[in-house]
Amino acid sequence: WDLGEWSECSKSCGLGMQHRQVLCRQVYANRSLTVQLHRCQHLEKPERTSTCQLKICSEWQIRTEWTSCSVPCGVGQRTRDVKCVSNLGDVVDDEECNMKLRPNDIENCDMGPCAKSWFLTEWSDRCSAECGSGVRTRSVVCMTNHISSLPLEGCGHNRPTESTPCDNGPCLGKVEWFAGSWTQ
After folding, report:
1. Residues in a beta bridge with 50
2. C-beta atoms surrounding 162 within 10 Å
3. Containing domain of residue 39, as a range?
4. Residue 136 contacts by C-beta under 8 Å, 6 or more apart in sequence?
5. pLDDT at position 20, please?
6. Beta partners for 6?
7. Which residues form the signal peptide (predicted)?
8. Are 61 and 32 in contact (CB under 8 A)?
């Protein structure tokens, strides 16, 4: 039997086929001549085809659904798990898959505009002056959806006041004893 070279594998990855030429040849001195196949039938005939696999085929697989958006309002991000998986079902290095075909594993999500509003504390219990005119104070904060504070300009121009007048009544003359130095 005279065996030719194997052809290239029919698939670039995964299971494919390859072929080769198998001839029956008769040798005379320094020459050989191709003869009919039945002339070699007493010899075991070599295979003309064979399976081949140049490498394992791998493809991108989306393994999880998108997560919830990272923010309750405004623009945030969401993610999902994307893996390169072989035709045997094993997770392999990303380089085994075509990076141009890789599905996104992160994307922006828009949850709509954030509601902004003023949040206020109660007025302070005490007036700043023990007598006469003074002020009571409170804190004023601009918040979005009750979670994150913004610069005060973020809630617009209708900012509530942070102080209010108070009066603890007239200051009465305070009388005290004063002792001077002893005389000689």
Report:
1. 18
2. 14
3. 2-54
4. 123, 124, 125, 126, 127, 128, 163, 164, 166
5. 96
6. none
7. none
8. no
Q: Could you tell me where the beta strands, DSSP code E, fall in 8-159?
A: 16-19, 22-28, 31-35, 49-52, 58-62, 75-79, 82-86, 91-92, 106-110, 116-120, 133-137, 140-144, 148-150
Kindly report the backbone phi and psi dihedral angles of residue 153, in degrees, each rounded to the nearest multiple of 5, phi listed first. Answer: -65, -20
DSSP state of 47: P
Total length of the chain: 184
pLDDT (tens digit per residue) in 113-122: 887 888 899 9
The pLDDT of residue 113 is 82
Do residue 48 and residue 20 come from a single domain?
Answer: yes
pLDDT in the model for residue 148: 67
Q: What is the pLDDT of residues 8-60, one digit of tens each?
A: 999 888 788 999 999 998 888 888 888 898 889 888 989 999 999 887 788 99
Q: Are residues 41 and 68 in the same domain?
A: no
| Residue 45 near residue 24 (C-beta atoms within 8 A) | no
Report yes or no on 128 lying in a domain: yes
Domain count, the chain: 3
- The answer to whether 77 touches 111, Cβ cutoff 8 Å, is no
> 66, 91, 111: which is the final residue of a domain?
111
Tens digit of pLDDT for each residue in 27-37? 888 888 888 98
Q: Are residues 24 and 50 in the same domain?
A: yes
CATH code of 74's domain: 2.20.100
